[in-house]
Amino acid sequence: MKILVPLDGSQLAEAALAPAAELARRMRDPVSIILLRVVSLPAIELGLDNFGAMASAPTMIDDIMTAAQDYVRATSQLPLFAGLDVLARTELGAPVTTICAQAQETHSDLIVMTSHGRTGFARLALGSVAESVIRESRVPVLLVRAHHQTFPDLGRHQPLTVLVPLDGTELSESAIAPAAQIAQAMHGTLYLLRVLPAEHPNVLHEITAHEAYAYLTQWHDRLAAQGITVHRALAFGDVAEQILAKAVEHHADLVAIATHGRTGLDRMREGSIAETVIHRTSLPVLVFHPAETARQAPPLETTAGG
């Protein structure tokens, strides 16, 4: 497994380092962490054909790249990475495009990034980058919140809980296996949630609470047979609102949700729900794109005791 952690030299971005290291230590199979420092110059951001004045000063660019390389190498040697396989990479380019391209080129299984959570994406540069990566990446993204604990102390009374909203579609189900892997790695539990809207316009067959619960029970039994601790619950009302409310009610530590990705978070029903949850919760959110999860989801195997 490979975990890509994009860095920009800020403390905000560095808040993703500890969760990535913790996750790497908990996995049974070997994990490599790739620290990526993307250097972006104004000309790149504006899409210009050349660097203008910067092009006449190659030494300046070399100095910037050297400083970036020194930074990412020093970061890779932090004590929190002791005993882990950590690679340092520095690339010149537009942040979002470069992060997504590097995730593909390095065959990464997960991107770990940071945002400010409830303060909103659009007000801060890194938040804007994180939101765009979520939309564009074909690799799952773990979005962690600055100033919030990502993975709870394993010694606490309650285990880590991963909330997985399901709506009966393969899209939503694509989040189950990767979410279960993290839950097992953290000695935690899955909480499967099915939200039924108050009204069901434009459907051929009414979805009853009995049918919905039976659907959850099928997944519950399949996961329990694999030794995964799992619970299930029904809720009624606005889907995004109920996901947010149940995350609080069930003391969730992480929300795992699937989206259509490149089709745009705001263009699809599922995407709109995912976007609302991402913007309004202070919890870490694990965002999946079905094509990638189907291709890359590793076996549900973690360290002993999971």
Brief characterization of the structure:
39% of the residues lie in helices and 21% in strands. It has helices at 11-14, 17-26, 42-45, 58-76, 95-105, 125-136, 170-173, 176-185, 209-224, 239-249, 269-280, 290-296, and strands at 2-7, 32-39, 85-92, 110-115, 141-145, 161-166, 189-196, 230-236, 254-258, 285-288.
> What is the CATH class name of the largest domain?
Alpha Beta
Number of discrete helical segments: 12
The radius of gyration computed from the alpha-carbon positions, rounded to a whole number of angstroms, is 20 Å
**Relevant CATH superfamily of the largest domain:** HUPs
Structural shape:
elongated
What string, H for helix and E for strand, traces the elements in order? EHHEHHEHEHEEHHEHEHEHEH
Kindly name the structural category. alpha/beta
Notes on the protein architecture:
With 306 residues, this protein is of the alpha/beta class. It folds into two domains: 144 residues, 3-Layer(aba) Sandwich (Rossmann fold), CATH 3.40.50; 127 residues, Rossmann fold. The chain contains twelve helices and ten strands. It has a ten-stranded mixed sheet with strand order 3-2-1-4-5-10-9-6-7-8, with helices on both faces. The longest helix has 19 residues. The C terminus is likely disordered.
